[in-house]
Design brief:
- The protein has 399 residues and is α/β, with parallel strands linked by helices.
- Helix content is 38%, strand content 14%.
- The chain has 14 helices and 14 strands.
- The strands form four sheets. The protein has a seven-stranded mixed beta sheet, sandwiched between helices. A three-stranded antiparallel beta sheet has the order 12-13-14. Strands 6-7 form a two-stranded antiparallel ribbon.
- Strand 2, helix 4 and strand 3 form a beta-alpha-beta unit.
- Helix 3 crosses helix 4.
- The longest helix is centred in the last third of the chain and has 22 residues.
- The protein is globular.
- 50% of the residues are buried.
- The structure holds pyridoxal-5'-phosphate.
Amino acid sequence: MELAIDGGRPVRESLLGYGRQSISDADIQAVTDVLKSDYLTCGPAVERFEDDLKRATGAPFVTSVANGTAALHVACLAAGIKPGDEVIVSPITFAASANCVLYCGGTPVFADIDPDTWNISPERVKEKITSQTKAIVAVDFGGVPVDLDALRALCDEHDLVLIEDAAHSLGSFYQRHPVGSIADMTAFSFHPVKTVTTAEGGAVATIDEGLAQRIALFSKHGITREESLMERSPHGGWYYEQLELGYNYRLSDIQAALGISQLARLPEFAARRRNIVAGYNKAFSDISEVQFQYDPHPDETVRHLYCLEFDTDALGTTRRFIFNALRAEGIGVNVHYLPVYQLPFYEHLGYDQDACPNANHYYDRAITLPLHCCMSDEDVADVVEAVRKIVSACKKERQ
Ligand SMILES: *Cc1c(COP(=O)(O)O)cnc(C)c1O
């Protein structure tokens, strides 16, 4: 069959996006109800959303914030990251995982990924630890939790703070413990392509009460009314103190209401995503030229992304060609991610472009396929058909 990129008939007429939100009538009703209520921000919906997140993540403390980037920023602030400090970060992630360190004046240090899980490798992390290292920002790539046991052991041994960037992994479990209940601090994002959305939104979960107080402080201007935290005796009921230089990173009640309603649908989202991932894995397991993400416990994972690594050498082609060919077939593929140190801003900071060979190898071959809860079984079949079509065309060309 002729490829659409060469003028053939595409697998589908309309482009299937790689990610999108699923909004129900109940979600819309929840937002409308808040708009008619007394509080658009700083109201009861925010508190309820945080309580629901505590239940979903098993974390004793959760603070909702404006977005996932703000969550990572306040986590670094709460960890006390300052100029001169080094923080070890996964290179295969969204820029925010490293930018949060720079916001605090710290230095991101990239440790290479594992070639099978595409998560940061604890062995490579270990090699990067110096006397300046203060924390690790570990990303659960695609929703598959990082090796938290190994990272925890390194953090305990070297007195480091473990920050888990769980923007992809809300709802996932690590050894039967929900993501959010394990690392010192766990950052979530509720951007529309993520599993649960509040349009823009995020949260920081923590298992430590002291960190929880600092997270709350830094996300609300550094201001507190809490008597136990205030240094001087209250002047009266109006009195508050600013103890730190914080930010206005609050989530509104409008967003929180959407979050409450969406979070109630997490089991439905998780089941559908698992079902699509299982279908993809089954379909691609007999194509030796593609590799999917290794996940030791797929039944415990809620996947945000489904990426494939194409063996471009065996296929005698480039990732760019496969990407363009899939787009021409009507499959809205994407790439996650350009290694952070390859972004011009980081390159100009002088990062060694060859320090993480596994990350570079992965990036040169990676393509993200559509994965979201609005996909039908036919959509999934279209994606599989398009990948098969392109792989066979490349192989035929080689013969
Ligand atoms: C989405 C994402 C973020 C940032 O979240 P926003 O809500 O968009 O600010 C951070 N890290 C990773 C890995 C992400 O995918």
